[in-house]
Amino acid sequence: MPEPGLRLEDPVPVTPAPGSGNGHGAPAESAERRLTTVFWDTGDLRLARWGGSLRHRSDEGWTLALPPLPGATPPPGDASGELHFPGDGQAPPAAALDLLVAFSRGAELEAVARVRTRGAAFGLGPRSDAPADVVVAAVDGDASAGAVLQAAVAGSVARLLLHDPRVRLAPDPEAVHQARVATRRLRSDLRTFGALVDPGWTADLRERLSRLADLLGEVRDADIMSARLTVRAREVGLAGGRARGLSTRLSGQRRSARARLLAAMRGEEYLALLQDLVAAAREPRLQPLAEAPAAEVMVPMAARTWSRLEKAVKRLGKAPSDTELHAVRIAAKRARYAVEVLVPVAGRRARRMADAIGELQTTLGEYNDAVVTVAWLRQAAEGVDAATAFIAGALTERERGTADARRGAWPAAWKKLSKKKLRGWLEP
After folding, report:
1. Alpha-carbon span 174 to 166, nearest angstrom
2. Could you give the CA distance from residue 63 to residue 92 in angstroms, rounded to a whole number?
3. Is 18 within 8 Å of 81 (Cβ atoms)?
4. CA–CA separation, 109 vs 91, rounded Å?
5. Considering only CA atoms, which of 13, 42, 40, 39 is closest in space to residue 26?
6. Which of 67, 188, 214, 241 is least surrounded by Cβ atoms within 10 Å, i.e. has the fewest?
7. 403/89 Cα distance (integer angstroms)
8. Which residues pair with 83 in a beta bridge?
9. What percent of the chain has pLDDT over 70?
């Protein structure tokens, strides 16, 4: 069955003939044929400047090449990332336009180039080589606080935009995860370094990002539980569909969550958020303090996130509750985000500390995932047949074992992290 919000006309991967493609989404034409290719884009070539393309060719219909993810630029001639849609060349299919919302953001797509070729490769000219509308500028230790924060914001905005079509396209757990990380990192950075920007502007963005993060989180949580239960079912010998009842319930939960997410992503509020995020990446509303050197004003701000993490750990008793450990995990995540922003400023010292915080966060994250899965299994076992209840019980015991192991492991991660030499660069 198609995913909610997708139709049978939605795209499928294209397998090109050997040697087709020129790295810009335009295939090389046969010397024996003369074909018409029409490229569609916004008037300012937003899609092309991100490295993507939408074209209609007389012999193959519509082809969409999504902008590549960082570090995943395909080699020339590789069309594995292309998507095909049926339809004439009068107007782009609605399904293709839906995948381009993050890049067009309400701007109309039009035919920007029409070419008839016989064996010659084609490009959109110098304008298509201009930078994308969100650029992550390189910064170093001498940069101002405003420049460092802008680079961090732009990086997260670019991550969200690039994963937006992949979230819409298919039930890709990694795309949902990356989009969720982008929203959470943005909210955290705007909070940690809030003194550098206009407070009213920041509060509004963070509130709207929170709503998006919650919707992404519902889908992500279902993905995590699905993956965990698949592994646990194999461990207890429940392969072959014996846990199908639980799997069906969880799949239904994910479909509902995904439908809510897609409905929001196709709404005016989300479109306005994208516009404002692009504006924030280009020109954040900085306060005068942002003109100071990053090393001077941002390091103390990051140090405060570390202080909050320390206090959260010190408040724990000998048998901390799940809620208390969850609070430590959240504090660790915010501290890691803050330290990672300062990697261009503090270099390897910041990277080592961020990695160490990440180990603690991962350990506590696995603990939290196990706790959440146990709670879901208990609820799923209510009012079901005896066989399903038994299976839920077996899976619950496995998850409890994982939770116990992670609960016992986090103090070692904290001990490694709390060494003074690791965090000395944060102290005045």
Report:
1. 9
2. 10
3. no
4. 9
5. 39
6. 241
7. 56
8. 13, 64
9. 87
Q: Do 103 and 46 meet the contact criterion of CB atoms below 8 Å apart? A: yes
Residues whose CB is less than 8 angstroms from the CB of residue 64 and which lie 6 or more positions away in sequence, other chains included:
11, 52, 53, 54, 82, 83, 84, 85, 96, 99, 100
Phi and psi at residue 2, in whole multiples of 5°?
-65, 150
- Residue 79's pLDDT is what? 55
CA distance 310 to 268: 41
Determine how many CB atoms are found less than 10 A away from the CB of residue 114: 11
Structure token pair of residue 381: 């076992």
The pTM for the full model equals: 0.87
Task: Residue 357: name the closest of 406, 301, 305, 294 by CA.
Answer: 305
In this prediction, residue 387 carries a pLDDT of: 84
- 134 in Cβ contact with 281 (< 8 Å): yes
pLDDT value at position 208?
Answer: 96
Taking only the tens place, the pLDDT of each residue in 206-238 is 999 999 999 999 999 999 999 998 888 888 877
Residue 85 parent element (H or E): strand 82-85
CB 55 within 8 Å of CB 2: no
Q: What sign has the CA pseudo-torsion 271, 277, 279, 285?
A: positive
Q: What is the distance, to the nearest Å, from the Cα of residue 206 to the centroid of all Cα atoms in its chain?
A: 16
> For residues 247 and 245, what is the distance between their CA atoms, to the nearest angstrom?
5
In whole angstroms, how far apart are CA 279 and each of 53, 69, 205, 274, 367? Answer: 23, 21, 11, 9, 38
Residues ≥6 apart with Cβ < 8 Å to 102? 160, 161, 162, 164, 165, 274
DSSP H helices, 236-347, are 244-265, 268-282, 294-314, 322-341, 343-346
- Answer for the pair 134, 158: CB distance below 8 angstroms, yes or no: yes
